[in-house]
Amino acid sequence: MTGQRTRPDRLLRFAVDAAGAVVPDPARRMPGRGLWLAPAPDAVAAAAAKGLFARGARCRVQVAGDLAMRTRRAWAAHAAAQVAKARRAGLVLADAAAAGRADVLSVAAEGIGEGQLVLRHTPLTRRLAADLALLAALGPEDDGR
User: Bridge partners of 107?
Assistant: First the structure.
């Protein structure tokens, strides 16, 4: 929507639900082509203020006033679920000394309260690392004040 061209895993995806409301889609599973936005702390609020969601959807949409907060929370919940899935699959390594190896990823997961994670290098963990980077780009959670 902002005109920035990059890989989809570096963009936030939104979709329009059946009621016509814009909702975050961190799993990228909702129907439609989606509304893609470059991550930044104020990107969601700026896109809503400029009417970019309606322009991108090519129809009238409802944009909640707290969409930015909902977006951050949706990405945090999605990333936490992905970390849990990676733990169950044995992809989160307990040995931080493994961080220097070529077959592992070391990612910051402060956005979900995990600190630094060392992950085996797989498609799941690459996607998890991208989701954590998006979450970090959204900035810290606003407590509504």
Answer: 117
Distance of CA 11 to the CA centre of its chain: 8
Side-chain-side CA neighbours of 114 within 13 Å: the count stands at 26
Instruction: Using the structure block, give the residue that is written with the tokens 């044995």.
Output: 90
Helical ranges in the chain per DSSP H: 43-50, 52-57, 67-88, 123-137
* Residue 140 DSSP one-character state: S
Q: How far apart are CA 73 and CA 67, in angstroms?
A: 10
Backbone angles phi, psi at 66, to 5 degrees: -105, 25
The pLDDT score that the predictor gives to residue 96 is 60
Amino acid 81 reads A
Q: Please give the biggest Cα pair distance in the chain.
A: 52
Mean pLDDT value across residues 130-143: 82
Task: Find residue 13's DSSP bridge partners.
Answer: 36
